Amino acid sequence: MISLAGRDILHAWGKFIFTGIGLGLLIGVTLTMAGVYRGMVADGKALLDNSGADLWIVQRDTLGPYAESSSVYDDLWRGVRAMPGVAAAANVTYLTMQVRHGQRDVRAMVVGIMAGNAGDPGWPPYLVAGRQITRGHYEAVADIATGFKLGDELKIRRNRYNVVGLTRRMVSSSGDPMVFIPLKDAQEAQFLKDNDAIWMQRRRTAANPAFNRPIVPGLLEAILDSQTTNNYVNAVLVRLARGYTSEEVAEPIRRWKRLTVYDRSQMEEILIGKLIATSAKQIGMFLAILAVVSAAIVAFIIYTLTMDKIREIAVLKLIGTRNRTIAKMIMQQALALGSIGFVVGKIAATFAAPHFPKYVLLMPADSIAGFFAVMLICVLASLVAIRLALKVDPAEAIGG
Predict the structure, then answer these.
(1) Sign of the four-CA dihedral 123, 129, 134, 138
(2) Are residues 177 and 281 in the same domain?
(3) Is this prediction's pTM over 0.85?
(4) Over the stretch 88-117, which tens digit does the pLDDT of each residue have?
(5) Could you tell me the maximum CA-CA distance found in the chain, to the nearest angstrom?
(6) Coil, helix or strand for 149?
(7) What is the DSSP secondary structure assignment for residue 176, as one 8-state letter?
(8) Which of 78, 92, 237, 299 could in theory staple to 381 by disulfide, Cβ–Cβ 3.0 to 4.6 A?
(9) Alpha carbons within 13 A on the beta-carbon side of 132
């Protein structure tokens, strides 16, 4: 009966192959969308891994620094560093913005890192070219996904930076490549106003009647100076000392510093369970829709192929062929169509994934699950054609 199914496929091989290719492209889209979701999860985990932190200290009652905005004083890290169980602590700022290079804008996450050494929390863990930041201002390390090269000059807000190093797979949870700059420059880019805004605010402050009387000497000067300085960062990254657990170090910080502290598992839950939850639901809905469409296409094609050979099926019944044999033939054709479609889809997804703007992670487990799902869809879709074939009257082989 395998020979019977094979001969029937060879009889209309052109239609069968082209249908398999069309189904394969649809399956390729499905595998790619699953890869997009896997890529989003991988980006979130890479963000946490590359931060080099075991704990994230953020503003109280916020989901910062990635899912919500967070502001803490930039001198907080000194007190945290002196606490038991803390091996290293460092300030960090995150700002997603357009970074300009010549006439081209690149959307990136700008990360402000404290002065230190490679391997400190917040620093890029490795470079593929160049060197780490060694100066306090106007140097940058960029991910190669930005398209920047060593020696390029970047413009971030009103300052220009020279790219001195390149790194790889340093991305935000949304897949934006990272650009690392000194912390003071990042604070200025994120929190400070432009010159015109500062000038206008100074005029408004000086014109305020509350400051026309010299009640407190130097008060006006202090307020004006505060408008050109910034004392905030988004988070403090903490690395634990050996022998201490996350809760042992986090609980005193929560109690005495009155701040929110997340460990690795909690931060992962925020990124994956909250930040990309909506995108995951959207991808899940598209996958369900594509599965239904794929089933409908397979059912329609198998139904059409069965309609084209109604008389042949009647002849088979007339010569005594059992219904089980006919049903098996139709199901084998559906499985063959699904196999061709899956192979085409897998090849298409593999070659298309590197060209997507977002990271696409095609996992073998997803491919295996996808193969069995396609086979199941083909089996279910063939039931319509099998039902039609079993109703064929053998007399049609003579009457037609």
Answers:
(1) negative
(2) no
(3) no
(4) 999 999 999 999 988 889 999 999 999 888
(5) 114
(6) coil
(7) P
(8) 299
(9) 14
